[in-house]
Each structure stands twice: as structure tokens, then as C-alpha cells.
Write a structure and sequence with these properties.
By secondary structure, the protein is mainly α. Helix content is 81%, strand content 0%. It has a single domain, classed as Orthogonal Bundle (MetI-like fold).
């Protein structure tokens, strides 16, 4: 089987991998910010819950979390699981997992801001929400971009873990075609896809960093 034919067969898997990637970012980035706020809350129960959530998400394998999200409704609540729920479970599992990592990145960035920034904003008449939105958050984003980039690149590779729920993403299809054709070419094609996808992500994130380096 020629390379063009293999890439054509892998096309649907590529689209699924890209879908998982973008949906994960769409939900995990804002959710991570909410978890970061909860983690920094002065209300102890909320802070403890956020700490527990982050600890569990970072301390257990993503593969196991995906299985819990998919099979949990059946084993815990006796709900019937449909085949269409597989991709939804993957999206949920990835989003809640990556939100925990993004939460700690956000928290590190927010807590690194000098107290003087808040005091100066208060003297200028800014409210706390205005201070965060207009002064603190833009600087936080600038500081955390390298860490966010690392997580985003990891996410590209982690999309292959969707195979545990039999979701036909890129890696799953590559394995099936390789087994059927007894060839390493599908794996090489998949590796090239992941590399080029990561390269594109790295270039885009680097351009964003350069754009935000407005003092250089």
C-alpha cells in the first residue's frame, strides 16, 4: 500500500485527534482559571476541594480517568452507555485533566505578581475585577505562556490515549492499518503527523510570545 493511500485512510483519525485537541483547550483553559480561583480562595472548604481535585487529576493516569468518565455512569448510577458517548467521555476526561494542570500554571502566574500592582490599581480607582481583567491577567498570560506551550504540546501527543475508549483517532487507525498491512509505514505517517502538528503549535505559541514581548 502506498503512502498516499495510507494517509488517506488516516484522514478521519487526524480529524478526530484535532477535534479532541481543540475541544480540550476550549473547555480546560477557562475551567483551569476557575479552579485556580478556587485554589486561592480564602474560604477553606472551597480551597480544600480545589486542592483535592488538582491532586487527584495530577496524581492518577489520564487513561484511568478516561475509563472512569466512560464507565462510571454505568457502574455508579446504572445508566446505559451509548456508543456515541465515547467521544463525549474523551472530551470530558481530557478537559478535567488538563484543567488541573492549567489551574496550577494560572495560580503560579497570579501569585507571582507584585503586591504593588494591586495597590497602584486601587489608588487609581480600579475595582478588584477591573484590576484583574485589565492589569493583572494580561501580565499573567505573558508570564505563563512558556508553561502553557509545554502543556499544549503534551496534549497533542496525549490525544492518542483516546484509544482506551475505542475512539478511532490517529494512533488507533495507524495501529489497525499497520496490523492489517504488516507494515511500519502507518506508524511513520502518524509520527510525522504528530510532529508537524506539534511544530505548528510551537510556531504559533512562539509568535504569540513574541507579540506579547512588547517591552523588548
Amino acid at each position: 500500500m502506498d503512502l498516499l493511500s495510507i494517509v488517506s485512510q488516516l484522514g478521519s483519525g487526524m480529524l478526530v485527534s484535532v477535534e479532541i485537541f481543540f475541544c480540550t483547550l476550549l473547555f480546560s483553559l477557562p475551567l483551569g482559571l476557575l479552579v485556580a480561583f478556587a485554589r486561592m480562595s480564602k474560604v477553606k472548604p472551597i480551597q480544600w476541594l480545589a486542592k483535592l481535585y488538582i491532586s487527584v487529576m495530577r496524581g492518577t493516569p489520564l487513561m484511568l480517568q478516561l475509563m472512569v468518565v466512560y464507565f462510571g455512569p454505568y457502574y455508579i448510577f446504572g445508566m446505559r452507555i451509548s456508543t456515541s458517548y465515547r467521544i463525549i467521555a474523551v472530551m470530558i476526561g481530557f478537559a478535567v485533566n488538563y484543567a488541573a494542570y492549567f489551574a496550577e500554571i494560572y495560580r503560579g502566574g497570579i501569585e507571582s505578581m507584585p503586591v504593588g500592582q494591586y495597590e497602584a490599581a486601587k489608588m487609581l480607582g480600579y475595582s478588584k475585577p477591573q484590576t484583574f481583567i485589565h492589569i493583572i491577567f494580561p501580565q499573567v498570560v505573558k508570564r505563563i505562556l512558556p508553561s502553557i506551550t509545554n502543556e499544549v504540546i503534551t496534549l497533542v501527543k496525549d490525544t492518542s490515549l483516546a484509544f482506551v475508549l475505542a475512539v478511532a483517532e490517529m494512533f488507533t487507525l495507524a495501529k489497525q492499518i499497520a496490523a492489517a498491512q504488516t507494515s511500519m509505514v502507518p506508524f511513520i505517517a502518524a509520527a510525522v503527523f504528530y510532529y508537524l502538528f506539534n511544530l505548528l503549535v510551537a510556531v504559533i505559541m512562539e509568535k504569540i510570545e513574541e507579540h506579547m514581548n512588547y517591552y523588548r
